[in-house]
Amino acid sequence: MKIDRSAAVLTAMREALSPTAVAPLPHTRRTHWVLSLLALFVGVTGWFDLYQHYDVGAPGALAAGIARAVPVLLCLYRPLPAWWLALGAAIATAAPTHPASSGEPWPWAVTSVLSIVIVLVVVALRAPRRVLVVLWLSLLAAGVGLLLTRSPIEPGELLPMTVLATLAPLTAEAIAGRGDAQRRLVLVEEVSQAEHARRTLLEERARIARELHDVVAHHMSVITVQADSAPYRIAELPPAAVDEFGSIAAEARRSLTEMRRLLHVLRHDAGADADGDAGAEHSPQPGLAELPTLIEAAHRAGLDAHLSVADAVPTPDLVPVGVQLSAYRLVQESLSNVVRHAPGATVRVTVAGDARALRISVVNSAPEPVGAPVEARDPDAVTSTGQGLIGMRERVAMLDGELTTGALPDGGFRVAAMLPVPPPADASPAAPTPGAT
Known about the structure:
The protein is of the alpha+beta class. It has twelve helices and five strands.
């Protein structure tokens, strides 16, 4: 154990004597100005202090003031050499001087204390604690050595410098530790927000995968039924056609099984089972026909919601189920956001478009002022099944659509989406009219 302690002491001493053991402070405009002003203050006040209170001539007082001001400037670039220079300048100032009265401190003049403490604070912001201990001991040893050269010896003269030299690095170390803790906290918060956004995205994708499974499973089930029943519905099918229909039905069943297995893996990885209703997997997916019901739910939540559907909008049986489901979820999530963030606002839901695209617009007015009475008979009537704008963007991107969101000048908010409507699978180009060019 003695060997380890001796090695630690030697290491600390080598670091304290190394010019590059302590990194300098960042060279910012603020640090340059602060240290420059402090150096000027130490130089000017040191000159007057020695000239008036220590019987030092003007040239000697000026030289001593400059010698003690230079380390304050140097500590911005070389903290440890600046410390030893400040200590040497203080010793060189104290050795030949004599206080004019018993009320003046000695061996450390007030401006010497100021110079040493400033440099020590700068060193403490970067140096390890073992180096600070070496510097503190060297300062104490220098003070004791100066006292031994005079008589009578008054140890109390070392008390102010000793206290300040102890409190200054402790305070600087606490400030540096607080800054490091704040930087680590900011980094942890950024990582946490990134992880939260990633998990939110995974959960929304898992939810979309489940809904996509419901949509595709419906069509695959129809293919399976048609392929199985084809030999019974179509008379005199050749054996090759019967076998072909059987292979189609078998592949459709296999695809459904693989989709269910993949959906289970996605929901397990994203943890979608924890926040979803167990019965939601087996319930029919909503569409355009359920929008009036959604508006009624918004009324129960206390929203002044209005629905407008243009005459040119195709009937639900002409719009693919996936497009209908995405439109419904966009409106549902927008209404849920209004309930949470703009209570008392008026909401207008507009559905427009034609056979090529469906356009959804949800515009709400500014929320009621704080303290205004807001009627909310059933705040849970409109529930959020997505993850805000992240879920909206995922759904629109899945359909190669466009989504625009933003605040309005009057304090409201607008969500607008364009969802392409693919042509029916059985659509074929019209036959050309004979004789037409």
